[in-house]
Amino acid sequence: MLSSNPNYLRISVTDYCNLNCIYCKSRDYLHLSREEVLSFEEIAEFVRLTTEWGIEKVRITGGEPLIKKDILILLEMLREISALKNLCLTTNGVNLKEFAPSLKKIGIDSVNVSLDTLNPGKFISITGKNELQNVLDGITTARDLGILVKINVVMLKDINDAEIIDFLRFARDNSLILRFIEYMPVGKNFNEEWFLSNILVKNKIEDYIGLLEPYSIFNSESSGPAKYYKNSGLIVGFISARSEPFCSNCNRIRLTIDGKLHSCLFSLSEFNIRNALREGDEQEVRRLFFQTCESKKYVCDGLEDRFIPVSMSRIGG
Ligand code: SAM
């Protein structure tokens, strides 16, 4: 049972991606027509409304948001919503170098970069593209501009789990916040054999650098499912949907590019706000928003026996 209404909205602005990660397989595209897709004005209006109903934080995700050249227009529109406290973005980093100065200018609060390996060959085998150097350049450019950058790593057994310590060194050397995200049963290519518990990842880190102390400044209500720890200057977060289910603390809802609200990645019900939004029917948008929040209270208590057959990029990872 959820303690309070969600305050964090994740918006998928495209289901397309310029990478094709083995565990995400984002090429499971929806092929939507222009008509079916929410316009930036519609997204901004929805965000404006939801800030009146409790939303404080918005994350732009996808698919890959930085393949959309006009994404800055949407970010500017959202930044102008004064009630929105936190505006952030999740990217694979391939185009981050080019976008970082504009993101800084707009005043983005943070950028999460997904990076699963520091090895150029392995990067190609995981993502299908030779883009590691571009991602690394994007990370350092954003960081040097003063943008808060968090690195999100999905650890997969026998694929990249030999790199846990390399990632620690990378984060420490580059003053970055590192987060380990547990592989979740999402997408047609889900392979249980790749699952690696964050308990093992944390143990391995502690064997190497010593005890990780809970980091209370980061473990605020708005941090949602991530649990943060600190060890001499290094901040490490764990998002452990399977080994430590966080459904009762989850503060997120998701909006897809075609206007469907999801209370949870694993919920089969969706609430389509597109028509109501287009017709300017604020009462109906409000009703659907609160119905989504209400359904969140009864979603689940962990991911045991749960599997969602569509890719993360469709729902907004
Ligand atoms: N393109 C952007 C990016 O790469 O960050 C945003 C979309 S991507 C779907 C968002 C995140 O979802 C990435 O960090 C990716 O690693 C993660 N992801 C995809 N499938 C996942 C799964 N089955 N379990 C856990 N994380 C997953």
From TrEMBL:
The keyword Metal-binding applies. InterPro entries: Aldolase_TIM, Elp3/MiaA/NifB-like_rSAM, MoaA, MoaA-like, MoaA_NifB_PqqE_Fe-S-bd_CS, MoaA_twitch, MoCo_biosynth_MoaA/MoaC, rSAM. Residues 1-216 form the Radical SAM core domain. The keyword Cytoplasm does not apply. Its EC number is 4.1.99.22. It catalyses: GTP + AH2 + S-adenosyl-L-methionine = (8S)-3',8-cyclo-7,8-dihydroguanosine 5'-triphosphate + 5'-deoxyadenosine + L-methionine + A + H(+). Keywords: 4Fe-4S, GTP-binding, Iron, Iron-sulfur, Lyase, Metal-binding, Molybdenum cofactor biosynthesis, Nucleotide-binding, S-adenosyl-L-methionine. GO terms for biological process: Mo-molybdopterin cofactor biosynthetic process. Gene3D superfamilies: Aldolase class I. GO terms for molecular function: 4 iron, 4 sulfur cluster binding; cyclic pyranopterin monophosphate synthase activity; GTP 3',8'-cyclase activity; GTP binding; metal ion binding. Its cofactor is [4Fe-4S] cluster. SMART domains: Elp3. This is GTP 3',8-cyclase. It comes from Candidatus Desantisbacteria bacterium CG1_02_38_46. The lineage of its organism: Bacteria, Candidatus Desantisiibacteriota.
